[in-house]
Fold Molybdopterin oxidoreductase.
Amino acid sequence: MSGRRQITTMCPMNCTPTQCGMKVEVEDNRLLSLKGDQENPDSRGFLCIRGQASQEIFENPKRLLRPLRRVGARGEDKWEACSWDEAYTMMVDAIQQTQPERVGLWRGHGIGTTGPINGTLLNRFGMLGGFQQWVTAIVCWAMGGYGLGLTGLLKTNTKEDMAAHAQTIVLWGATLASQPDLAPHLIKARKRGAYVIQIDTRRTETSRHADEVILLPPGSDAALALALAHVIVQEGLHDQAFIDQHTLGFAAFATHLEQYTPEWASTITGIEPERIHDLARRYATQRPATIVLGGSSMFKHQHGWEPSRTISCLPALTGQVGIAGGGMGQRHGGSPESIGFASPLTDVSSMLPDELAIPSHMTSITEALTAGQLDVLFSFGSNMLSTFADTNKLARGLDQVKLVVSYDLFMNETARRFADLVLPATAWLESIGLKQTGSHIYLMEQALKPAGECRSLISILRELAQRLKIANFFPWQDEEDYINAFLSKQTTASGAPLTVEILRQHGGYREKNGLSHIAYQEHSYATPSHKIEFWSERAREAGLSPLPSYTAPEREEYPLRFCQGRTLTAFHAFFDEGQALPTLAKANPGPQLWIHPQDAERRTIANGAPITISNQRGQFEATAHVTDDILPGVVWMRDGWIGVNSVTSGAPIVSLSANDIVPGIPGGQATYDAWVEITANSTNRGMMTSSQS
């Protein structure tokens, strides 16, 4: 790959629904420059600090460039280089010496940097091998999708529709850190006269785009949504004709709502009753109104399915579904109505018997690990200690596994402490890829040869499948032919299937077939009744409330409610918690806890001071960020730091009986709740791991 070339590709950060375009210039297998793609129809040249910093992956002294096997005891972080043949032998021998159901495949965002091609092939490998694998959205957006799925409003209107038509925009837990491509559309809508309301637990970068900011205690979103619904029904602001035609259970819901007055909600949310009245009236009358839901953080509590379940009833009550500028806006894990990728898995079925499968239920996975049910665990592009709740228990479980294999660009804490074999991953420019946004499909051309001895996940899986004699694993001619299988549902103007070559001829971009900027115009909903369900019989049968509900969190003995989320300067635990890339390490030199001035003053904590965060589960150290951008009694931290989940609960949100009642979206997230105490340190001793690990 010699000669200077300019290549159009996509950012590797994988922060869906945002996927930003890139232009890279390479020469003699070196990356010369990287910038935003001005022609990209989604990002229009935008590239945040995370995308810009990704160029620091290459020629980085911390990057893994050859397979490493552990020497000495786990946790000593001592390694020696080994050959790929030796690495394959270790993995194959370990798999062949146990039963398939005792082999687990866990994957993270790190293998999604080139789109779904790695994850889907890993699914195929697991299905044909009879191995354990899980829907890893349970650490991210799945709990929000679970609640939306019970109501029946999983599809979204597009950001373009919001910009052109919405009169009221409610950003409910949504941040531009998660979807920065929303910002220009918010600006366009406001210039047109739209009124923007932000509802969140803290002020964020989104706040400067809002006409009104409402701060809520964590976990109280469902209470506010029920009070809004109460006002809408009590004041006759609901759309009875829409309700009669397209919903189920309104009579029971209306009766149910009588108890959820603004006065009741005010005691929980701290929002004045009249302000709740005003918000409900604005949403119902200053229409069309769009609700943009956050993707993850607002659902990470004891009853995390309740907010999206209750909030999604508001468009149905007011008849704002299937109309321009209405419905639910762009969100992580959601998409507009369109024809997307085909599934290359339709010709295979899982060889793992159902009765032996460990469900996509975080608490059950952790319990299986601690019970010694797995002998081999692969971690692909994931730092499990940063993503699972109650990582104290997870750590004990990982130590029970005989062989732990990590595949990543850089070392991470899970690998340092528990891996026996570390495999060097290719970066996104070193292999071909394919991504999609809500509206477009994008080709990602290979721009560089893999550095050192790094290998793509596809090549590793193909080699393992061959050595394990897994038949029919890769029935395609090559990787390009495999990608064509994803494109096979897309057709050109002539009716021919879309291919990689055709995408190349059109600059690597293509709008999806059948794209609708407005969801549910046909009013067919993915519920048992095919209507929007205020009353959910499947929820009742699974032991959940059949009607939208609010359940107060159980307090613990510690005084401060701890919660976590995302910032524009980091993405989960990518790049060894961001510390492997100089730009991100400078922006995030260590864990920083947001704390309100009142709470800081009571504890004699100054801004920037070293502190310890602790509860009955563990403790870790950080620095204090004293700010009134968060409510008293609440503390907040960026996710991805290892210590964060040494204090979180890990209890299940829903039982196993309710885990699979929404097809394709398990309710298996564990509780990330924590009540903590914060104390000032006399000296800054650096971040500590859990005292119980």
In short: The chain has a mean pLDDT of 95. The chain has three domains: 68-133+340-437+440-511, 143-337+519-542, 560-680.
